[in-house]
Structures are given as C-alpha cells and as structure tokens.
Predict the 3D structure of the following.
Amino acid sequence: MKILVTGGAGYVGSHCVRALCDGGHEVVVLDNLSAGHRRAVDERAAFVQGDLSDRALVDKTLGGAGFEAVLHFAAFLDVNESVSDPLKYYRNNVAGTIGLLEAMQRAEVHRLVFSSTCATYGVPPSVPISEDMPQAPINPYGHTKLAMEWAMRDCAQAWNLGACALRYFNAAGASADGRIGEDHHPEVHLIPIVLQVAQGRREKVHIFGVDYPTRDGSAVRDYIHVEDLGAVHRLAVESQEPGKFRFFNVGTGVGTSVKQVIEAARKVTGHPIPATPAGRRAGDPPELYADPTKINSELGWEPQYTDITRIVETAWNWHRAHPDGFEAETETEGA
C-alpha cells in the first residue's frame, strides 16, 4: 500500500513510519520540520518538506500518485501552550486537517488513520476510560482533536472516507535498537525531562500537583510505548474500510503516577533525580488511563511494553546515546 504520513518526522510519526516500512508499505512523509527531524525519517521512506497549509503542495503530493491511505500526525500537542494560545491550535490542528481532507477528497484517497488523544475525554467520570464515555475536553488541545474527529466522522458519511481515530494516551520510550527517540525543543514530556536531570542538563524535576485524589497525590497517566503505537497504526490502516469511522483507545490499561515514573528513572539511571512539588497546571486531569478492551478484541492488538521501568529504560538508552538529540548526528555528519 502507498501511504502518505503527515508529521512523519515527529516523535510518534517517525516510529510509525518505521513500522509501515517494516510491513512492506511504500511510505512518503510530509513534514514542515517545525517540530520533527529529517534524521528521524526512515531511509526507506521518501520525504517531502512542506506544510499542510500549502494547498498546492499537498495536492501535488497526493494527486495522481497512487496513494491508498494517509496517516495524520501533523498537529500541535502542548496542552499548556494551547491554553495560552488557542488560536494557534485551531489554525494548525483544525484548519490543517480540513485542508488535508479536501486534498484527499480531490485525490480520491479513502483511508485515513488519525493520531487522536485521550484528552478528548477531559476529566472522565471514572477510570479506566472506555470508548463509550462522553468526550468533554477541558483544554483547547483536546477541543481541536475532537473537532478533527467530528470532521472525519462527517466525511465518512458524506464521501465514503474510511477513517480511524486512535485516541492514545502518553507516548513514551524509544526504539528498541536506540536509533530513533524523543527530541523536542523545548521538551514538554515527563520522561525525557526526568532523564535530563539524570544527564545533568537540569537540576531537578518539578512535580506539577501533589494533592490530586490519586494513590500518591501526583497525576496518573497511561504510558504507551512508541513501538506499540507503530504496530497499532499499521494494523489500523491495513484493516480500514472506506465509508466507516472507527475509534479506539490505545493504552496499556495501567495507570502510573508521576512519582512512580521518577522512581523508575532513578532505578534505571542510578541517579537520585531530585524532585520538588509545584502547583497544578491548567487543563491537567488528575487521572487518565485506558480500557483497551475494544482495540484488543477488534484489532487483535496487545501492547508489548506494559512495565514503566522497561519503557523508561528504552528512553534512557536513546537519550544517553543522543544527549543533544538528532542535532548532534547532523553536526557529526557535516564535520
């Protein structure tokens, strides 16, 4: 299958591109490299640098090229930034997706797998979170992702689009062989921030909220390994049917607190990793973890990584070998 992957140079996108290439698919990546890295793109995939807002480029890339499917990762994802600058998120996430859907309709591409999020549930009435719970996001990031799902659902009815929304939880870890991993500037995700303390790049880690109604007072999340995400995206696109809108929670079903993540990092790195309490962040629910029953039964998918220590270990292997991320590799190549 020939597949276009938007945002395929990003953290999750690059791991999914690798899974698709391993499955024998022909992959083309479209990425503006605002947050992604050219070095993260699998050498077996073709690469087009550009933005979804460039209608002519998207049409040129998709049109007449024999594409059968699109995987869509090109979206902003910082919850806190979305609260302070919501229009940036609506412009990129919602308007960008509408432009992509229009291009797919013109090119008659009828399969789409979308990187959605558990943030569409907001503060759930209970955990674990199942797909039949109400979607009531509490921040602009979640609002934009839900709007993107609505657009896809409506297009499925209107022009036979087959779309699958994968509502995954906290992406974590790095490839088992250590070749690709997480490299954000600035870094906003917990595990790499904690590991930067172990590397001496930060003095300490802040725990945002220690008075949540959870087992140890810190926020609880479901950490899903990026290679597991790669596997599930491949299964979703290979099984997607035109005219059908599907949605799945993608998680391990295991809730892990911030304090437990820090403790796992201490164990893996051998570093004390000082941590200090801080106030809660706007838009952060206390507890989010998945009920993966539906995706287990309908797609036959089971996560390979369910232990937080093992997930942190893969991340540590990547960060220790790439202290400056992909940038350092580029500099070394050009020396």
About this structure: The chain has two domains: 2-172+222-250, 190-221+254-334.
